[in-house]
Amino acid sequence: MTDWFEIGAMTDIPRLGSRVVRTALGDIAVFRTATDKVFALTDKCPHKGGPLSQGIVYGERVACPLHNWVIQLDTGEAVAPDKGCAHRYPVKVEDGKVFLKLRGTVVNIADYAAAAQA
Ligand code: FES
Fold this sequence. Notes:
Elements: E1 2-9, E2 17-23, E3 26-32, E4 38-42, E5 56-58, E6 61-63, E7 70-72, E8 88-89, E9 91-94, E10 97-103, H1 112-117
Antiparallel strand pairs: 1-10, 2-3, 3-4, 4-8, 5-6, 6-7, 9-10
Bound molecules: FE2/S2 (inorganic) cluster (FES).
The site of FE2/S2 (inorganic) cluster has 10 residues, from loops.
């Protein structure tokens, strides 16, 4: 079963930045672009598992902080010539609040709000 989980306010995510949502499924990086589009990917680069949440966001892409692979935020696909895909999660914004669609039976969300305060 999948459900939409409210994880916090969009304004908690810095523009051209991200927040990490810790779940029982693993860490999920939630990105916000300069134009306030929001995307969610597993926080693991398809190359060698680098933390995409610490990468540089530009346009609708993020550059991995470890070896600079570029990942397309809407698909999770690495930009050629690199090959690989970070798992993408459905995400939506309603009334300024961010919702992630996750498997409800295993999810256990923490830390988004705490990170936003840091
Ligand atoms: S781990 Fe991301 S580019 Fe190598």
